[in-house]
Specification:
Chain lengths: 401, 401
């Protein structure tokens, strides 16, 4: 594709941030902006003008952006519930799509994404920025080089105290509030699952077979609101549907297991809890450490905390992913420690070169489906549910290498 | 009870260690020792003599120790599979019991322990030393003082690289090998579950309702044996039943959740992964840190890793458990950072004072049952199974305080 002209949909906090610090900073041309709230759409237009580009068309209805003949790429950063719907409409109109993350509350949306992509072959990228994290890519590289041996178990979480954002969701027009009042599931599985799925070759020689989710009771938000928003009679009297901690256990076709944790309504420090366990070694984000099956680590008086906690940086020189090595030379830019920058760089590169997207529609469908599946499982007391195969039985096409 | 005279059964590595460094070091009288292997029984007898006591009776059959009229207390440190059977026989003979930890492969054994205890009221203590760990007791104390708010989720694990012990199990006559060849479950749940159960008031106002376990494939031991024991044709050709990582999710009557991890056949550092999550704060063993819901921790530029990782020691002065405060004054002794010492001190104290045991038969039955339940659940692909109520419906007798 030449002559990229972006229609940018969704200009809340994340949308505005990505637009200015990544999309416009990478000198990509934005010819239309859209948000259901006029003031947000207008704020997006100003960001485009401030970047020295012509004033974009301003819309409040996403169908109008997709219909805009000037636009040939749609970037979606709206509330979760509209991602798939907008992406499907864009692909049907032949417009390339980059879609922000979030889960899907129905399996049908996930099937639809795949079906429309397969029918139209419109370029589609899922914006899972954590797949581009430095540590995530370093560990992926170590796994691909066999340093950790056979990988048999991974875990991760979206562990982020969002009590303030959620409690003030009406004032901030944030979609999380309505979702936490209504749903009980792992509503945001892809930051943790994405990098793990890449390591376990999900949809590329392996697949997720079954899933079980269990939610703790919901106590965190109520306690927070009593203390921090005592004047909000509406929220004070509400029972939140969303449990504080949701644990999801996934079993894969190759027998490996994945444990995901959604943990957003209790006090804690931010962590994605990324952990990879192989027959020769492990990486663990909580301690940012690499543990290898070597003599030093096996010694009986080996003091892990003193010797190795935080040692992952020592492996960067040898194992940083080639993409990151180049990124460090070029200079790391953009939000979230550079992940956003690298992600969009790879998206626009693939678009211009007509190359496969690094995070594709099968990734999107299978990762987003975890939300719908976990809701079913939680509602049934942790019952095991089947994970659909969105590749239509073709996930093992790469199993022979 | 006055005039304690111990019959000590099971003199493998753990048995001999506890006998010399704790039981004899506390000047308790041991009048009989027993092991199915004569050389081990003899080694136990020597330890008793070396401690300056008269030569004990030496047995190879546990029924003989129990029948020994001189013995009035039985300590059980045998292979897992014999714990409950010996304890039941001892209680029926009216001899007080201290029983080492391990899981139970059948629910019947757990029911039997409770039934025989209730019939005989023979003093029974479950030797879960981790309930006496300094951090575990400090966090229990913090919870009881309300520092962490309402506790809604806990996790823990028995995360201990035992590949060497298991692979050389025939040479070392160690029971783990036969169990890893035959069973697939959380075979050792009590080190992690015990301290959590105390915090969540299991059997004392709360109970475990349902459980789901999922096992990863078994790859760690095979890879280890190929590399470290290539001459063992028997083990090289075996498929181990035991998955490398078993994740167990438990839902409690009060809606709180517990996640347990058995993780003993892949390279890693030792950790029990003890984590407690409340509405006002958390403790996490991986980083040995306390995170409270205070202004400093909430600041947006707060750097957790730099500021708080490892900060739990700062809370010791205020929150160390009273038992530990005294222990530190008296001088910490015995194995496992003093846990073993404190545990036996409390056992003998309760025995002499005819007081309730700090870890009782209901604790033992419900914690050990996790092994049998997890085996059922793993075999059924992670299906949810019901956790029996070993209190006979009386767990809520303490719910009104």
């Amino acid at each position: 594709m030449e002559n990229i002209r972006i229609g940018y949909i969704g200009l809340g906090g994340r949308g505005q941030g990505l637009l200015s610090s990544v999309v416009l900073a990478q000198n990509e041309r934005v010819t239309a902006v859209c948000d259901v709230y006029e003031d947000r759409a207008e704020a997006g237009a100003r960001l485009v003008e401030e970047a020295g580009q012509a004033r974009p068309h301003v819309y409040t209805e996403y169908r109008d952006v997709i219909a805009d003949p000037e636009v040939n790429v749609i970037i979606i950063a709206t509330a979760w519930e509209y991602h798939a719907e907008i992406a499907v409409a864009a692909m049907r109109a032949g417009k390339a799509v980059a879609m922000e993350v979030g889960g899907s509350y129905t399996l049908e949306q996930c099937y639809e994404l795949v079906k429309v992509y397969e029918e139209t072959k419109t370029p589609f990228m899922f914006l899972e920025n954590c797949c581009f994290g430095r540590r995530e890519m370093m560990v992926l590289n170590m796994v691909e080089q066999g340093v950790l041996g056979e990988v048999v178990h991974c875990s991760g979480g979206y562990q982020h105290d969002l009590r303030d954002e959620i409690s003030f969701g009406r004032e901030n027009r944030h979609y999380r509030l309505r979702n936490y009042l209504s749903h009980n599931c792992d509503n945001y599985p892809t930051h943790d699952l994405g990098p793990i799925a890449k390591i376990l070759k999900i949809n590329r020689g392996n697949r997720m077979m079954t899933l079980s989710s269990t939610a703790s009771r919901a106590a965190g938000l109520h306690a927070y609101i009593l203390e921090n928003k005592p004047e909000d009679e509406f929220l004070k009297s509400r029972q939140f549907a969303q449990g504080d901690v949701v644990t999801t256990v996934i079993k894969c076709a190759d027998g490996s297991t994945i444990v995901l944790t959604l943990d957003t309504t209790l006090p804690r420090y931010y962590s994605r809890g990324f952990t990879v366990r192989g027959t020769k070694g492990m990486y663990e984000e909580a301690t940012d450490s690499v543990f290898l099956d070597c003599a030093a680590h096996k010694a009986h008086d080996f003091d892990w905390r003193r010797t190795c906690s935080g040692n992952a940086a020592e492996y960067e020189e040898e194992y940083d992913h080639p993409l990151w090595k180049q990124f460090l030379i070029d200079g790391v830019q953009g939000g979230h420690d550079g992940m956003d920058w690298l992600e969009f760089q790879q998206f626009f590169k693939a678009l211009r070169e007509d190359a496969p997207m690094p995070v594709d529609v099968y990734d999107a469908a299978s990762w987003m489906a975890v939300t719908a599946l976990s809701e079913m499982s939680v509602a049934r007391g942790g019952a095991v549910v089947d994970v659909p195969d969105f590749t239509g039985g073709k996930w093992h096409r790469e199993i022979l290498g």
